[in-house]
Write a structure and sequence with these properties.
Number of helices: 3
Order of helices and strands: EHEHEEEHEEEE
Structural class: alpha/beta
Helix content: 10-25%
Shape: globular
Largest sheet: 6 strands, mixed
Oligomer: single chain
Bound molecules: inosinic acid, magnesium ion
Number of strands: 9
Radius of gyration: 16 Å
Distance between the termini: 13 Å
Length: 173
């Protein structure tokens, strides 16, 4: 695959997910959170993060798509796959691969909040620093990165590269 430089190595991701998992294990002691992965990108982060969490977890997934041009997030999100279960009075932890404008996550949070979960928090492997267009409270962040387009570890370019074990920057040529 013609991928560019490694931005975050597999080893660094593994170490960070272990830290995040330990924090989540501490924070949710005595509880049974429902981890909600946002498809497709979050499937790898969710699988690896969950194995660092020592709690009786349950899992569910949502799939969303943004309306509008592919290169720009419109903020209008369509739910392609909703949760399989009710979340009233459950502790919900949304797992995201990356937060860019934050508009997708903002929409998701709004649509889950009205279902009255006991708590609603977010864990994201990557957050693009300083470019969120809405204020977001991400409780568990892996790495803050620049505005560049990244691939790997669940993140795709035109559907490819999700299975790279590291986060890389696409080569321009
Ligand atoms: P947001 O609504 O702008 O925060 O966009 C979030 C979604 O856009 C993510 O869940 C990704 O699917 C996608 N995305 C944003 N930045 C990148 C990137 O650098 N590489 C791959 N996908 C990205
Ligand atoms: Mg995504």
């Amino acid at each position: 695959m013609d991928v560019g430089e490694v931005l975050i190595s597999a080893e660094d991701i593994e170490a960070k997910l272990a830290e995040m998992g330990a924090a989540i294990t501490r924070d949710y002691e005595g509880r049974s959170p429902l981890m909600v992965g946002v498809l497709k990108g979050a499937f790898i982060v969710m699988a690896d993060l969950a194995r660092h969490i020592d709690l009786p977890l349950e899992f569910d997934f949502m799939a969303v798509s943004s309306y509008g041009a592919a290169t720009q997030t419109s903020g209008v999100v369509r739910i392609l796959k909703d949760l399989d279960q009710e979340i009233a009075d459950r502790h919900i932890l949304i797992v995201e691969d990356i937060i860019d404008s934050g508009l997708t996550l903002n929409y998701l949070l709004k649509s889950l909040r009205v279902r009255k979960p006991a708590s609603l928090e977010v864990a994201a492997l990557l957050v693009k620093k300083g470019i969120q267009r809405v204020p977001l409270d991400v409780k568990y962040t892996g790495f803050e990165i620049g505005p560049e387009f990244v691939i790997g570890y669940g993140l795709d370019y035109a559907g490819k590269y999700r299975n790279l074990p590291y986060v890389g920057v696409l080569e321009s040529e």
